[in-house]
Amino acid sequence: MREPLNLIKESFVCAEVGVWKGDFSQAILNRKPSALHLIDPWVRQDYVDRLYSTAQEKMDSVHRQVCNKFKDRKEVTIHRAYSTEVKFEEGFFDWLYLDADHSYESVKKDLEHFAPLIKKGGYLTGDDYGWTDANCNRGPKPAIDEFAEERGVELRVYPRRQFALLL
After folding, report:
1. How far is Cα 111 from Cα 166, in angstroms, rounded to an integer?
2. CA atoms within 13 A of residue 85's CA, in its CB half-sphere
3. Which of 19, 31, 69, 154 counts the most CB atoms within 10 A of its CB?
4. Assign residue 121 a region: left if phi > 0, alpha if psi is -120 to 50, beta otherwise?
5. Is 68:114 a contact under the CB 8 Å cutoff?
6. CA distance linking residue 149 with residue 144, whole number of Å
7. For every residue of 13-74, which 3-state class applies, written as one string?
8. With bands split at pLDDT 50, 70 and 90, how would you rate the model's confidence at 101?
9. What secondary structure letter does DSSP report for 100?
10. CA distances for 29 relative to 5, 86, 147, 155, angstroms
11. CA-CA-CA-CA torsion sign (24, 71, 66, 91)
């Protein structure tokens, strides 16, 4: 189990950034949010990781599968876009899970982009804290640590490389 799921209260407005096939999305829905926004470009990206380093036709197929998986879930909205391209009002989300591009630079941009969109007392959570890869230039951990220190927000680190920022 991914511990940040325990932070979701029924009727929260949630988002998952970096959806892939939507498996974790279902776990979020099991917590009964009032809304879940799924954000992923489903675009071939050689530099990201092995999942996204596949033919664009496969990425299109994965996107279609996710759309079909959640087509009858009125609380789900799918955004086929890069994370920082999506626009929402400030304080829109109660809880957001970040599992997108793992490079230091991208994680830092995602944190800066999404933090204002989280309600006061809400959570910006994610995966792969401490994960490293030669292609990801330092990985998520230093970006998350710096963000928490700069903003003076509480950082919780869980087993299985999960994290939560209390905003």
Report:
1. 12
2. 7
3. 19
4. left
5. no
6. 9
7. EEEEECCCCCHHHHHHHCCCCCEEEEEECCCCCCCCCCCCCCCHHHHHHHHHHHHHHCCCCC
8. confident
9. S
10. 10, 21, 28, 24
11. negative
pLDDT given at position 134: 60
Give the pair of three-digit tokens for residue 6.
């325990």
Residues 6 or more apart whose CB falls under 8 angstroms from that of 26 comprise 69
pTM over 0.90: yes
d(CA 80, CA 71): 15
Asked if 94 and 119 touch (Cβ cutoff 8 Å), the reply is: yes
Tokens representing residue 24 in the block = 């974790």
Q: Which two tokens stand for residue 60?
A: 């299109």
Strands 35-40 and 76-80: parallel
Q: Give the pairing of strands 154-158 and 93-98.
A: unpaired
Helix (H, G, I), strand (E, B) or coil at 71: coil
How long is the chain? 167
Which is it for strands 154-158 and 162-166: parallel, antiparallel or unpaired? Answer: antiparallel
Residue at token pair 């995966």? 127
CA neighbor of 25 nearest in space, from 82, 63, 88, 69: 69
Q: How far apart are CA 153 and CA 134, in angstroms?
A: 29
